[in-house]
Structure formats: C-alpha cells, structure tokens
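Example record

The entry below shows one chain as it appears in the dataset: sequence first, then structure tokens.
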Amino acid sequence: MKTLWRFVHLPWSRQALLVEAGGCLALAWLLVRAVPFRVWSPWLGTQAPGEVSIGRGQSAGRVRDISRAVSSIHVRLGCHFTCLMLATAVQWMLHRRRISSSLVLGTSTRLDAQQRLVLQAHAWVRVGEDVVLGDHDGRYTPVSSFVRPHGLTKRPAR
C-alpha cells in the first residue's frame, strides 16, 4: 500500500515513465521467455560485432530517468527480470525518444568450486561512451552489439 501511495503522489511525467517501463519490461519478459532470440533480436537494432560506441552522450537527464525507472520497476517486482530483459526495455525506451544507443551482449568464463568451467552471459546498454544500465566493471568480453542510431549521417564507429 505504501508503494501505491508513493506512486500516486509522484509527478504525472514520472508516473507515465514508470508505467511505460513496466510495459516494456513485461513485453521483454514475454519475448525472452517464450520466443527464440533470433526471431525478436531484429527489434533491438542493427547487429555489429564487439562493443560499439555510438554518437556521444546526449540527454543525460532523460537517459538517467529511463534507467532509474526500469531499475525501480525491477526492484519493486522482486528482481524477476534478467539483464537482457532490463537492457531490452531501456533500449526500447531510448529508441522511442530518438536517443542513440547500443545494447551489448558479452560473456565471461570462470572456474566453479569443482574446477568446472562456467560460462556467464551479460547484457548492458551504452549511450555514447557511458554504460547506462548493466555495469560490469570490465568482467565481460563484448561479443555483439545491437545498434540503434538516431540523427547520425555516418555509420557508427567500431
């Protein structure tokens, strides 16, 4: 009840952003859980190898608000979303506002307690040189990026 009370007293623009974040996360959850990645990955943008930085940091306040809204919904719903679901929702919301971004997929390997090799995957979102969601402190090696450019006259730098 306290969460609902706080939501009702937020400014209208923040409420709308949180509702949009919830809808994007619900759609991302459904796609990740029920549809093969190869089918819906074109919705993420143009695929490029490795980690791509596109454009320059722009609209820092709006980008931060979007990232916080998605993270807030994630926490309030009990952290049932994966990094891919979160990154997908953020990238869709950025795209809707015509903010250039790239969703990066990376991997990492480590040895577990039984000395078996464990492969881990992670997804994060970049706007310009900044990681705006899914920070990983360099522990993951970028494998592929899905780029969503807006207002660029030339191809993204690799």
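Notes for this example: The chain has five helices and five strands. The mean pLDDT is 88.
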